[in-house]
Amino acid sequence: MKIEQYISQLLYRYQCVTVPGFGAFLTEFQSAQLDENSHSFYPPKKMVSFNPFIKNNDGLLANHLAEAEKISYEIAVNIIQNEVSHWKTKIQEFGSFSVKNVGDFSLNSEKNIVFVPVDQINYFTASFGLSSFVSPSVKREVYKKQVEQLEEKTPIIFTPEKKRNYSVLKYAAVFLLSAGITGTFGYKYYENQIAQETLIVETNVQKKVNQKIQEATFYISNPLPAVTLTVAAEKMPYCVVAGAFRIERNAEDQYQRLLKLGFTKAKRLAPNKHGLFPVLYGSYSTYTEAHQAMKDIQKLDNKDAWLLIEAL
User: Fold this and answer.
1) pTM of the model
2) Of the candidates 111, 90, 112, which has an alpha carbon nearest to the alpha carbon of residue 99?
């Protein structure tokens, strides 16, 4: 039985898919890319790589195969072992083989396995429907503006002003000045009267307000009940997994070991639908933080630690 399709299905959902006895396929997020030389645009994607040193059975592939084919877990493990044996025979006899929709394997001059992922499939589900495209370069034309400076020479003609009779205007100015002075004093008097009346009204209103405040009495007969606010817990969907155990006692031993090593975020999860007891190094709110923690743990404690992304 071919297991390639089940590996491909799991790569959409998980950061690490281990093939027991062979190695692990790892995915890493890559943001959108622009190739300025070819004017090509590439959407965000998951880059698939292969680690031949992660070979322990974490139960992920076997459980998925058992559920999809309606077979027992033990039979699924045997199917995977047979397929791995077939892969190793191929690469020893022919020097290469392919895992459909995942990538190609070959041996280099030093007899080490070289993995080349396929480019046609993007395992980043958020980029579904997006494909790369080429945009023609933008040509820009520069126009030079020529400005002509025009000089206008207009003859200036001086026309002598005729002498007017200002005697009538003199008397009119005296009359307007007198009227203005009288109006100014009258307006000032009227303005002072309005200001005094306004002050009296405001004083009476303020007295009434102060009186009402002094007479007011507040009674609290039935105190209001306390209000309980529920704050939504921060979602931490990115988990670094230490292992998933079929025997609960083994899961508890691993959990206690992590606590003794100083992994204060370590915790046990309830058994999953496959009957396995997962043990976590910790949970994180962002992919970047979880991925860095996984790398540190792989270097310091467990090279088989892998990243689980729970449904958001």
Assistant:
1) 0.41
2) 90
